[in-house]
Amino acid sequence: MPATAAQVLGDRLDTFPRLLMRHASARGGQVATREKDLGIWQAWTWSEVAAETRAMACGLSALGFKRGDNLAIVGDNRPRLYWAMCAAQMLGGVPVPMYQDAVAQEMSFVLENAEIRFAIVEDQEQVDKLLEVKEACPALAHILYDDPRGMRHYNQTFIQGLDEVVEMGRIHDKSHPDFLDGEIALGRPEDIAVMLYTSGTTGKPKGVCQTHASFITAARSGVDFDSLGPDDDILSYLPMAWVGDHLFSYAQAMVAGFTINCPESGETVMTDLREIGPTYYFAPPRVFENLLTTVMIRMEDASALKRRMFHYFMAVARRCGAEILDGKPGVAALDRQLYALGNVLVYGPLRNVLGMSRIRVAYTAGAAIGPDLFRFYRSIGINLKQLYGSTETCAAVCLQPDGEIKFDSVGKPAPGVEVKIADNGEVLVRGEMLLKEYYKRPDDTAEAIDREGFFHTGDAGFFDEDGHLKIIDRAKDVGKMANGSLFAPNYIENKLKFVSYIKEAVVFGHGLEKVCAFINIDMGAVGNWAERRNIAYSGYTDLAQKNEVYDLIRECVENSNAELSHDPMLSDSQVHRFLVLHKELDPDDDELTRTRKVRRGFVADKYRVLIDSLYSGKQSQFIETQVRFEDGRTGMVSADLRIMEAKTYPPQSAKKAA
Prior knowledge:
Rossmann fold; GMP Synthetase, Chain A, domain 3; five-stranded parallel beta sheet; five-stranded mixed beta sheet; 23 helices; 21% strand
């Protein structure tokens, strides 16, 4: 690192570029980033990352990128896309990561709203998307690509390879050695460090402007809380546009100095996870649900002896595994011995198959996780914890301390974070990790942050007797049944989705006499189940309407109802009638957000005829739906959907439930 840079840095570690330069100085030879390419892991040290980022920043400057500009970043998790974030920050610009699986028209809104002049993208696919909407985004002047494959015949002058820009930057840096250090010195902790767009469950996404200070504060809080350091490893595979990935794979890595590992592709994540064996892991509940489904499918194919052994020791794990992990006394000696044997025969091999044999701490967030799913992972010895937060809070509001894990809470307020419950039950949050503003939306900013500085999360919750926060649901989704009892749809849906055969569920019941549900089957799990029983099917729609599949799902729904009957607050929310949808809910059809959250209002409007049929007593309903394919084409899917009754149970006493 040049002497001038050292002088610029001093002891100020209050922006991400300064943190990067400090790591390059303090641990320059240690691996900062890995990427698997063509089956081989490539590695870059902190010194190499700093040099590459420096060259990229100088190259961007040579092209005309200046302080205050916004830089779009689109693609899978790639080292140079992470470095591009810091390169923009070095110049006083703002990185704007975008969802790589978004269709062109979705990208158009962000490109226009954020006034994007420069975009760095992964490959030809993303270049083509930007070219498709460029006419509607006249400000877009430069498209830079990382992967040159397929780009040979693109001769537009505004399209350039990132290699060329980096080389241009190296020349610029040699010619003006003090330039970049001066730009880094101008950076302030209160400057906007990143703009992350919300998922847009109820309308157009909003650009959340977070400062260096807010994200560094959130990152340091988590790093100190879990004693993270340079020797830790994380697999960076979640969308870079999601606040969770930005906190764990960028902000915390910059603060703690640990190594981020980028998988070869989305299809190789599980293989790459096993090869890396991260010590630190983060995933939304849907990933943990999918992993569990994979395990259960494999067990279906195992021998009878292995299935019996698995189920026997999983019963032991459910009984005492979580308590042993937390070091709690009171576990019977026999159970400890059985658990130790189970660890050798089942739990250890299972953790290894999942790629979690080295994990010291794992987190889940982004949506509520079902208590049963949560207990499963902790019972097999994985230190899975929940955190609570949102894009507007740098994903850092509550954390679960080791030894104080509760399956139905999100933990206690993180250090430096103040949380209180409003009179209407809404969770309010205040602290340094709050957003600076919504981009170009002052009215929304004023509405979200009140005069006392509390951010209104939109979530409904309460504190238990131990000071743990419990989130019931989105405040706007929590309602009342016709008889006045509580209706919390997300809680019920999570109960249903714990079963490996159910991929997605949407329940209805607010203001109504009973709860009804839409079900999406898990194609992998149910397909495997059907094949083992010689049930032929031609695709999702055909499989979903099989009589045998309906009987299977009815059993799953009734098991969920039996569990709900023990909950004094939600025993009236048992599912009375359900149908299995003829198609999977899909972000491309606007039914889910890019983070796979259900757009509840949109789904209710789109499938109003199905809801009416559920509540009118019909036994079936024909429906025809337009779908959008990955290549942009549209088509129609139709089916005559069966509607089935599910058994419900009388409320059970709390004593009996215990």
